[in-house]
Amino acid sequence: MKVLNVVGGGKMPIVGLGTWQATNEDELTSALNHALEIGYRHIDTAYVYENEKVIGAVLKKWISSGKLKREDLFITTKLPVAGVHEDRVEMFMKMSLENLQLDYVDLYLIHFPVGTNYIEGHTITPQDKMVLEKSDHVAIWKKMEEQVDAGRTKAIGISNFNKQQVERILKCARTKPASLQVELHVLLQQKGLVEFCQKNGIVVVAYSPLGSPGFNVFMEKNGFPTKETPNILQLPVIKKIAEKHKKTTGQILLRFWIEQNVAVIPKSTNLERLKQNMDVLSFSLDSDDMKQLKAMDMGEKGRIFDMDFLKDVKSHPEYPFGK
Ligand code: A2P
């Protein structure tokens, strides 16, 4: 598996397993076991996904049975919005480690640049009690750096930050951000942000590289308004390129980012699709394919995750998108 070097010494396999919305314990356990069997070593989770404990239990079995060494894995988790406050970083970091039954993670990310209040016992602050809070990124980053010093994470990074916000972290950092995880797919390519990060040694990770086919399932399940999202997997340009290479449309969408040294973390609990998503390193896209795919970029209009399910989020000074 091709790896990307992450500041702090870690090697991130370029294909990882996303786990957002994988909350059914049996389904996730079986998917993870299968994923590990077929060679996945990079697993992406977050405190708010409410599945760290399930992941931790599976990893523990694999490690304690000697089938897998901890150092062969690359595990990412994230500080939730309720933790985007300098006084709560350490507490949430420790809770994630406890859930995962690990001594350290490989990468700890600030999940989103806007912070909310935290109510004990809640992973996500309930909407009717949610209050946006001032988010002092410089103070929070100092606390993130302390997590590296304490050995709780090998590397630290950010997610959903815009270029100005990344620049501010770079300026104040004693420990540089190792990675930026953002929404990236053919309709939202964020070329300037990706190039800026790569020039500064920040590994870029694409979330929703398939266009998040499960987005509205999440919205409905949580009582949020649904919205129309494009079915990227079925777009004619993608289908044509897939036919040409005798690959699935999903594989083309993933390979597009691998060609650009961007890691992908597609989520799947389906055994066949897990296999497909790993099998994207044995073929390449040619310059004509890349040209057609790059031309599909819609800029901000292509964004699916504007996060407006967080109450009043767009009024927060650190709201990152469309700026
Ligand atoms: P499933 O778990 O049933 O495979 P994203 O990472 O862009 O958010 O996409 C995740 C969604 O896409 C999940 O709903 C997942 O469903 C589905 N999915 C994952 N891999 C593929 C694939 N290769 N082709 C089609 N759909 C996929």
From TrEMBL:
Record-annotated active site: Y49 (proton donor)
Keyword NADP: yes
Database matches in Pfam families: Aldo_ket_red
InterPro entries, per database record: AKR (IPR020471), Aldo/ket_reductase_CS (IPR018170), NAD(P)_OxRdtase_dom_sf (IPR036812), NADP_OxRdtase_dom (IPR023210)
Ranges for domain NADP-dependent oxidoreductase: 16-296
Protein keywords: NADP, Oxidoreductase
Gene Ontology MF: a single term: oxidoreductase activity
Presence of the UniProt keyword Oxidoreductase in the record: yes
Annotated PROSITE patterns: ALDOKETO_REDUCTASE_1, ALDOKETO_REDUCTASE_2, ALDOKETO_REDUCTASE_3
Residues holding substrate: H111
Site entry: Lowers pKa of active site Tyr: K78
Family: Belongs to the aldo/keto reductase family.
Protein name: NADP-dependent oxidoreductase domain-containing protein
Organism of this sequence: Callosobruchus maculatus (Southern cowpea weevil)
